[in-house]
Amino acid sequence: MSHSGTALLNPYKIFADIKLAKGMRVADLGCGRTGHFVFPAAKTVGDTGIVYGVDVMKDVLENIKSTARAEGCANVQTVWSDLERAGKTPLPPASVDACFFVNVLFQVKDKRSAIAEAARLLKKQGHLVIIDWQKKLGMLGPAPGQMLIIDTLVDLAGQSMLKLAKQFQASDYHFGLIFAKE
To answer: What average pLDDT does range 17-43 have in this prediction?
Structure first.
């Protein structure tokens, strides 16, 4: 199991919920060292799609690049960005079909800017998927005071013209929210 608990999550089930398909463009925002969503997304969107692994830590991006080369995932591109600085991710506005925040937002200070940045990147009718901890698993997960409040996320997303499309149980330890860009 990875240190972030993402091994408890099934990316393919979540991809089915948002109808991720060949040729689509995906941004995994705060992709992390293992690319738990990057590489399944790369298989799902195929050679005609693109998956952007976005992170603020350059060593994480080097690890994703290395794994992409080793696994022959030519459709994976790494992007350095501080997601708390809206408008600064070097991808065109309205250029991706889906953005993911998986076990990331609890660590982000400026959640409003991070969500606004995801909304900026999304095409009309695109999806933002937020998956985060709802309870700890042993030493994994945030302190109780760092757990996210779903209603707050729904409000922040609404400020960026994102509408809650679905709320689901992503694992025994994670909630999931799917927002659609209006």
So the answer is: 96
| Counted domains in the chain | 1
Other C-beta atoms closer than 10 Å to the C-beta of 61 total: 20
Domain that holds residue 62: 6-181
The pLDDT tens digits for 55-106 are 999 999 999 999 999 999 999 999 999 999 989 999 999 999 999 999 999 9
CB 50 within 8 A of CB 28: no
**CATH value at residue 122:** 3.40.50.150
Alpha helices in 18-148 (DSSP H): 38-45, 58-71, 111-121
Torsion 82-85-91-95 (CA) sign: positive
List of residues 6+ apart from 135 with CB closer than 8 A? 141, 147, 173
- Assess if residue 108 is contained within a domain: yes
Distant-in-sequence, close-in-space partners of 152: CB < 8 Å, separation ≥ 6: 111
CB 15 within 8 A of CB 44: yes
- CA dist list (Å): 135 to 16, 29, 65, 153: 25, 22, 32, 17
